[in-house]
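Lab notebook, design round three. We kept the backbone fixed and only want residue identities now. Task for the bench partner: fill in a sequence for the structure below.
Input structure tokens:
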């Protein structure tokens, strides 16, 4: 049960990290255009898009992490060849 909890918290952290990163990128782009156009615009669609893509990217990264851990666990259980 503890391992499942660790994997679920890792999923949450991955999704939160990528969502916050994409919101930060959108904020920087909006700030750049606010200096150019002299008004700040951060539309709600950009926030929704950052959340959607952040969750999708976090889920993809999590699946990659889980698969690599499973492959490493499988390879470690193989018996080494005899060196005679």
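Proposed sequence:
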């Amino acid at each position: 049960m503890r391992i499942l909890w660790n994997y679920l918290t890792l999923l949450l952290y991955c999704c939160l990290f990528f969502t916050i990163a994409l919101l930060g990128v959108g904020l920087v782009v909006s700030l750049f255009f606010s200096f150019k156009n002299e008004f700040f615009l951060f539309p709600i669609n950009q926030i929704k898009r950052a959340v959607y893509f952040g969750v999708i990217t976090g889920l993809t990264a999590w699946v990659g992490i889980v698969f690599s851990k499973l492959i490493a666990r499988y390879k470690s259980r193989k018996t080494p060849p005899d060196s005679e």
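Keep this in mind before ordering anything: The chain has a mean pLDDT of 90.
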